[in-house]
């Protein structure tokens, strides 16, 4: 019926420590516990469902007014001005660069 999935294990997990009174592995005989992966390691990754929802909302709602202005600036080959405008509206250098790249991809898709 239900087959067990093999879980990738850390090679250091499950090592037996021996009952030796000295040395690096001194102490009681026991098995090491594997720490679970933290949820914070997934932060920033886009899941398939989130990607689908965002594309659906974009399709229905369209672009925000500032995004339409960025598109107009990019169509007239004013990339630097579009970046400055995005930076003023969004508030960050990296975010503005990402938004500009995103809008450039939209223009490329529109031309196809």
From TrEMBL:
Subunit info here reads:
Component of the large ribosomal subunit.
Keyword Zinc among UniProt keywords:
no
State the InterPro entries in the record.
Answer: Ribosomal_eL36, Ribosomal_eL36_sf
Designated gene of the protein: RPL36
Tell me if Oxidoreductase is a UniProt keyword of this record: no
Domain of life, source organism: Eukaryota
Question: What GO molecular function terms would the record report?
Answer: structural constituent of ribosome
Organism of origin: Cichlidogyrus casuarinus
Q: Which Gene3D superfamilies match?
A: 60S ribosomal protein L36 (1.10.10.1760)
A GO cellular component annotated for this chain's UniProt record is: ribonucleoprotein complex
Keywords assigned by UniProt, alphabetized: Ribonucleoprotein, Ribosomal protein
Descriptive protein name: Large ribosomal subunit protein eL36
Instruction: Give the family, as the similarity comment puts it.
Output: Belongs to the eukaryotic ribosomal protein eL36 family.
């Amino acid at each position: 019926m239900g087959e067990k999935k093999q879980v990738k294990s850390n090679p250091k997990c499950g090592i037996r420590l021996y009952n030796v009174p000295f040395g690096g592995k001194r102490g009681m005989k026991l098995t090491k516990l594997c720490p679970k992966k933290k949820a914070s390691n997934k932060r920033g990754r886009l899941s398939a469902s989130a990607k689908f929802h965002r594309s659906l909302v974009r399709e229905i709602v369209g672009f925000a007014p500032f995004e339409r202005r960025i598109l107009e600036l990019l169509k007239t080959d004013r990339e630097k001005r579009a970046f400055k405008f995005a930076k003023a509206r969004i508030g960050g250098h990296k975010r503005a660069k990402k938004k500009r790249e995103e809008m450039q991809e939209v223009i490329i898709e529109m031309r196809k």
